[in-house]
Write a structure and sequence with these properties.
Order of helices and strands: EHEEEHEHEHEHEEEEEEEEEEEEEEEE
Shape: globular
CATH topology of the largest domain: Rossmann fold
Structural class: alpha+beta
CATH superfamily of the largest domain: P-loop containing nucleotide triphosphate hydrolases
Number of domains: 3
Strand content: over 45%
Oligomer: single chain
Number of strands: 23
Distance between the termini: 39 Å
Amino acid sequence: MPVLNIAFVGSENLARSIAKKGDVRDIESYVFKEEKNGVNQILSLLRPLKHPEKIRPLLSVLNVAKVGIIEVSKIDASLGEICVAFGCAEIKKGMAIINPETGGWVDPDQVKMIMHQSGLKDWELYETVPDEHSIREKLFSLMGEVKENNDSLILPVDQHFNVKGVGLVAIGYVQSGSVSKHDTIQVLPVGENGIVRSLQVMDDDVDIAISGDRVGLAIRNLREEALHRGCMIIHSDSDALVKNTSSIFEIKMAPFQKRSLEVGDVIHAAVDMQFIVGRIKSKDDSTVSVEWEVPLWTRLRDSPPIIITQLDATPMRIIGTAILQKSA
């Protein structure tokens, strides 16, 4: 079933009008299914919780999503950070919907300026809230414009547990490629192999899960200790991921960001559902050398943007994106 993952930053009321509420973690999910041309298609809204207090849920959503929706209730520093985060994640398609707080007013021209400066110039701006049918139709139209990554399997794990009668289950979003029943998979960083016993997507048993799917893998011949949040699943014969204990990268600074990185600074890198701590060891102009607290896994080919943040930076925690020069 084709799935469009949508990063949704806005109110629960608007999310509920578009799709049915599903599970809740540090991210809420909302799902809408519709048959089109004999095929079931799914809109999956992912709503990060606790922003602006916490930035990791927002970055996790952006790691998965291909399209965005931002509900604009007021213009403040939080809106600027949200728009910059979407821009740094290269979410090129989306909708910004103006819906002021009671008694308030939002200037559409100011919103448009912030979006353009953040890299969201191709998004559509709605000065009033469209009805839910119009929003869904717009999202379904965007589904055809989004290309999923069909390269090698990359599946970061965000949950795992034992299920009676099923065994060890790992859950996560397929970031790239596909995984099928009976595949031999490898869990990184431990390097242990297992066999996919069965798969579930949207509570349905399936034979294959593809890029964009949130999947549960029942795995046999694998120790539970091999799994933890942030571990990565690839095929056993794959070279899809590169292990980085240190990196040299050029930093492309985010719009509105006036802070510069310095030697000794602690940073976080967000990519493929990872949120890794590093410390800057040296700097030369816009190029920095970083040692990571735990390994950062990056793709051998076609890596998505690596978003660099500093949690103590105010008012903008998004520093920019990293262009890798060398890893070790």
